[in-house]
Amino acid sequence: MAESLPCPSWIWSNNSNVHVAKDRSWFGDDYTPLKSTVGSLMVDIHTPVIGIGTVELPVKRSPRATGPRSHGILRLRNVLHIPTSICNIIGSPIEDEYYIITCPSTQDIMGTIRDKQDRVAAYFKPGDKFFEVRLSGPPVGPRVGPTPFDPSRMYMINVRWPDSEREKWKASHAGKGPQLLSTEEKQWLKRHWGSEFKFLASYGLSIYKEDDREEGRATLRAIIAASDKDYTSDSYPLML
Fold first, then answer.
1. What is the pLDDT of residues 9-58, one digit of tens each?
2. From which domain of life does this come (predicted)?
3. For residue 47, which of 84, 92, 81 has the smallest C-alpha distance?
4. Does residue 85 sit in helix, strand or coil?
5. Residue 89 in contact with residue 206, Cβ under 8 Å?
């Protein structure tokens, strides 16, 4: 049996405290199985979660522009995999890295998503029900399935990941990232880059995001290993 096409609808929901992807194919290499549950603001439900990871959405940046520069990537971190969700959901955590600007629907647009440098990263396609991100079509983006929505019905799109469930994941995740930097590694970083902030920024990472700092530590160690074959460090007791 051929694999079904992924759900195309990525809906901005400011009442949701987490991102959700319906299909496994949206996730990248960091996808991790996860046993958890989410709820809703409207009803007392416990919907199963089966995984978590990063999603890099291929999106259109402008409704009228053409060519490679009209496309971009919208990166969503810690996205929950929920196959039973009616659609994909972009929750409030996106505001940690982007600005959401909505407006009344026009012929072309219903709002934009901008990065912290105020550059348009994506836009919401016109409509009267949802703030739905315009994806890049093939060959830039993947082939997708039909909309899951019935135009004659009303929908309340929201998802809530309970703090208790989130803390369980954080506790299990805490020991899996790169270990904290040793004194020698900190000195190398300062000597060659000046500061952690400058190092992370050069790779498009943020000092204010722990996931970015973990990625930065892994990157730094790879650079050190490549530049100094004699470098060794058996323990990393100090915090970056």
1. 999 999 999 999 999 999 998 999 999 999 998 878 899 999 999 999 99
2. Eukaryota
3. 84
4. coil
5. no
